[in-house]
Amino acid sequence: MNQSEDRNGISKGNPNPKQDKKKHHDRGFEQKRDMKHHPKHDGKPNVKSEAKEPRQEVKKEMKQEQRPAQKPEHKKANHNERKPEGRVYKYIAFVSFKDSKKIYTFGTDVDEYRVGDDVVVETIRGLELGKIVKETETFLSNGMEIKPITRKATERDLKQAQENIEKAGKAMEICAECIRKLGLDMNLIEAEYTLDCSKIIFVYVADERVDFRELLKELASIFKCRIELRQIGPRNKSKIIGGLGTCGMETCCSRFMNDFDVVSINMAKNQLLALNIQKLSGQCGKLMCCLKFEDSQYKRLREGLPKMNSQIEYKGSRYRITSMNVLLQQVKIENKEDVQFLSFKELWPDIDFSDR
């Protein structure tokens, strides 16, 4: 009875036989469902289900065999990937543009270019007219991409470059009118066409960032070519415009400088100059670049010397350094009773000033 009661789902101590019948019915349904999915449960073999199982196993085995074969191939492909190297040329040419003294390098396969020749080169802006400023040399590849020289400039190229200058002047007037109409806070400096007139570059100065999207749309509809609006700083503006410095000579930036170094007020202090910002600033409104040129020389001349306003002892009395001229090697010392002007050798005999 215990075995039959257990198989039929009737357990001891259950007062409700209807619930037991319902449980028996549910278990019987589960057994049939299990037998359908598991044919060996009732001892009768199911041919169709047995035929499908080996196929699925074969597919799984094939997938498992393919996966490990794909992974090493994928890793090898990534391991063997290399960045494309730049084109290799026979010679390298040195070219400068317009009035700029900066030299750029271009590749060429012919050794026919001489200093002073006008050439057409390919740049990131497009085709431009440049001038050879140095003899060509043998090309040594360093893995970096280098643009080529397209050809030696012809009479047509030179004529086109001259026409582009005239067109750029008219384009600048049109652009300035559009800026006034849109009320943009920007000062237009110059305009420049590429040699093939596929692009025009407008250079401007602004105190803050300018939203020129509407201006760009209007200019594109007028000129029917690519438009570039480039913002520059006050130093670059002075370099383009040019002028005379406080020394009476042409400004250094427009005469020979290519890049701008950082100039700080500490350089003026090191040179013992009066900290008058107006006198120390150039026409760009920034500190003059010549402060940077002379800074290293003044550092060498002041090496080993005491600082300004420091206390020293001379002939048994205490003095304070109030002024110093490192070029003339003279120093001014004073106290409440006396003021003296001395040479460096008199005040510091132990220091060798012969190489200064």
For the record, what is the CATH homologous superfamily label of the domain at 160-232? K homology (KH) domain
> N- to C-terminal separation?
122 Å
Per the principal axes of the C-alpha atoms, what is the gross shape? elongated
Secondary-structure element series: HHHEEEEEHEEHEHHHHHEEEEH
Strand content: 15-25%
- CATH C-level name of the domain at 160-232: Alpha Beta
Helical proportion?
25-40%
How many distinct helices? 11
CATH-derived architecture of the domain at 160-232: 2-Layer Sandwich
- Main sheet summary: 5 strands, antiparallel
Structural class label: alpha+beta
The CATH topology assignment of the domain at 160-232 is GMP Synthetase, Chain A, domain 3
Summed over residues and divided by their number, the pLDDT gives a mean of 77
Number of strands: 12
Spatial strand order of the main sheet: 2-1-4-3-5
Radius of gyration: 43 Å
Low-confidence stretches are: 1-15, 17-84
What is shown here, in short?
It holds the Pfam family PSP1. The chain has 356 residues and is of the alpha+beta class.
SSE map:
Layout: H1 2-7, H2 17-37, H3 47-79, E1 91-96, E2 104-108, E3 118-123, E4 126-138, E5 149-152, H4 155-182, E6 187-193, E7 199-205, H5 213-223, E8 226-232, H6 234-241, H7 252-255, H8 265-270, H9 277-280, H10 290-301, E9 311-314, E10 317-325, E11 330-334, E12 339-343, H11 344-347
Helix pairs in contact: 4-5
Give a written overview of the molecule:
With 356 residues, the protein is α+β, with helices and mostly antiparallel strands. Among the domains are: 91-153, no CATH class; 160-232, K homology (KH) domain (GMP Synthetase, Chain A, domain 3, 2-Layer Sandwich), CATH 3.30.300.20; 253-302, no CATH class; 310-347. Helix content is 38%, strand content 22%. It is built from eleven helices and twelve strands. The chain has a five-stranded antiparallel beta sheet. Strand 1 (91-96) and strand 2 form a beta hairpin. The longest helix is centred in the N-terminal third of the chain and has 33 residues, at 47-79. It starts with a helix and ends in a 9-residue tail after the last helix.
